[in-house]
Amino acid sequence: MQQRFAILISAASLAVSVACSQSDTGITTAVKTKLAADDSVKASEINVDTHDHVVTLNGTVASKAEKERATLIARNTKGVTDVVDDIAVGAVPAATSGTESESYGQKAEDTAHDAKVKTEDAAHNAKVKSENAADKTGDVIADAAITSEVKTKFLAEPGVSGLDIHVDTDNGVVTLSGNVKTKAEANKAMTIARGSKGVKRVVNHMKIAA
């Protein structure tokens, strides 16, 4: 009795197994397994879908021979009544995973951005230094020109001791120092300096000699 019961259980399990293998899900699994085991087919690029025992294949393979081989494998799988071949022949995507590809692409983009920022910063700093240097040079030239003009006017002006009055110019501000004979001479020197081109202000440090 027990032996007969065991035989019945075994037969039932076998029937379930056979039924499962011939279900749409079982057929899909079987086709995928066969494709993966075949060295001439790039199984990872082929999608398998089964409906009412009709298998549909889609995806992209590298050659027509690979496409025909995949179709033949599907047709020869147990339980398959028909095969719909939607496989395209063309360039197969690289095997690099999406995560690795995105990570590499992001790193490359970040590196390029950092390099661009550094280049722009360096160019900006160089421009600022150049402009500052030009401004300082311009100021020095302008101040020297003002000093020269004021001294020339002093030497050409009667009643002003051009050799005794010192002229110093900083950013357009003229400072007069040294000794003069009278207050009138000091005032005249101040007037001449104020009337010179580029002079912003005149500072009087002249002393009247006793």
Beta percentage is 15-25%
Looking at the structure, the CATH topology of the largest domain is GMP Synthetase, Chain A, domain 3
**N/C terminus separation:** 149 Å
Strand-and-helix sequence, N→C? HHEEHEHEEHE
CA gyration radius, whole angstroms: 49 Å
Describe the model.
With 210 residues, the chain is an alpha/beta fold. It folds into 2 domains: 2-89, GMP Synthetase, Chain A, domain 3 (2-Layer Sandwich), CATH 3.30.300; 137-210, Histidine-containing Protein, Chain: A, CATH 3.30.1340. Helices cover 56% and strands 21% of the residues. The chain has 5 helices and 6 strands. A 3-stranded mixed β-sheet has the order 1-2-3. It has a 3-stranded mixed β-sheet with strand order 4-5-6.
In a few lines, what is going on in this structure?
This protein has 210 residues and is of the alpha/beta class.
Which key phrases capture this entry?
21% strand; 210 residues; 5 helices; three-stranded mixed β-sheet; GMP Synthetase, Chain A, domain 3; alpha/beta
Write the layout of secondary structure elements.
Elements: H1 2-21, H2 24-37, E1 46-51, E2 54-61, H3 64-75, E3 82-89, H4 98-156, E4 165-170, E5 173-180, H5 183-194, E6 201-208
Parallel strand pairs: 2-3, 5-6
Antiparallel strand pairs: 1-2, 4-5
